[in-house]
Amino acid sequence: MTLFEAQEKLRTYGQEHVLKYYEELNEEEKQALLDQIAATDMSILEACKHREELAKKGEITPIATMQLPEIQAHSEEYRSIGIQAIREGKVGAVLLAGGMGTRLGSEDPKGMYNVGISRDLYIFQCLVNNMMDVVKEAGSWFHLFVMTSDKNHAATVSFLKEHDYFGYNGAYVHFFMQEMAAATDYEGKIYLEEKGKLSTSPNGNGGWFVSMKNAGLLDLLKTEGIEWLNVFAVDNVLQRIADPVFLGATIAKDCVVGAKVVRKNAPDEKVGVMCLEDGRPSIVEYYELTEELMNAKDENGDPAYYFGVILNYLFRVPELIEILENHLPLHIVEKKIPYLNADGELVKPEAPNGYKFESLVLDMIHQMKSCLPFEVVREREFAPIKNKTGIDSVESARALLVQNGVTL
Ligand code: UTP
What we know:
The chain has helices spanning 3-13, 27-39, 68-87, 123-138, 153-162, 208-214, 218-224, 244-252, 291-295, 317-322, 362-365, 378-381, 394-403; strands at residues 60-61, 91-96, 143-148, 173-177, 180-182, 192-194, 197-198, 200-202, 228-233, 257-263, 273-277, 280-284, 307-316, 331-335, 339-340, 346-347, 354-358, 372-375. By secondary structure, the chain is an alpha/beta fold. It has 2 domains: 1-39, no CATH class; 40-403, Alpha-Beta Complex (Spore Coat Polysaccharide Biosynthesis Protein SpsA, Chain A), CATH 3.90.550.10. The longest helix is centred in the N-terminal third of the chain and has 20 residues, at 68-87.
């Protein structure tokens, strides 16, 4: 893109200020900035001016969850279906590790966080240990796809390689990078993080399959015959990955998606809950849950919206390919965004100062025709690390790891 073309584009979106320091840059920096301007989707930025319109939902009704007694009654049958699928190479796992982990506040990728006390025990290591249980049970490896972003790719790859993938088979580990989106102030003006660089952040975890495609990984799915992908977050150190019973239940119920859920511990707990929206599977975020929905009962008299998602989903690959071209709703999130102030100095704010633009994996569920919400025991499978202390923290996760027999 030439300077003239960049100016045109910026004028269209009211972002001319990003060229403020252009004349101070050397030739290479100038070109890098013009390339970044060319690659940035600025059409989405206006949306922050009418955020409330983005969250419109259809008609919400309850969805049936497969609950613990039913799972226990059929666990051997489901387990053998799941194990067979893993042995046949039909299952892969996708680790979503492109996030910035701003709440945890570490400079390193979240997976590099050491939760050990008397020994080193990194988040990535906990996840690999959990995967190894399944590898041992099935007697075969399954492919692991690790999504990173521009901000943490190099550190993630070298850390995992340095630690020899914590015992996982390197031939089965594949990295790919997600796309970035510009970050803005509250007026939708793009921040600069350097004189020649727009402030960007990872564009949410919803673009993972598009990013896999862009990285050329769909060919590998095809040649390896991978039919199911288990997508999971980096920060839940207790989660079961490629869980054979979950997989077998989703296959047995002929669903194209499975979603692990936990029973909420209070009606107003801050988790998204499974539901039907206009007759299709969907998730209502906690801030969208009205008083009426919170207190609603299903036909058995139980709370109708009581199973929260834990970001562990199984997707069938053919259906993922079908929805590749579909757009996902945009989420505009308030975050702390490092920026250059009026004097050109870098500021790392203590409080949120603007917006990031994200799409979310949970919105993919609504594009699918069927979904099995699958209950898991919270204390055994849900220990997310979002903060240093308090709820969903290093502290709470450590306590849960110990409770589950892990030495810290
Ligand atoms: P979170 O919503 O907790 O975001 O991500 P985060 O960026 O890790 O943390 P905060 O909000 O800044 O504190 C849930 C999962 O989705 C991944 C994260 O790495 C985590 O596994 N994620 C999130 C991505 O892979 N890409 C993104 O753009 C955002």
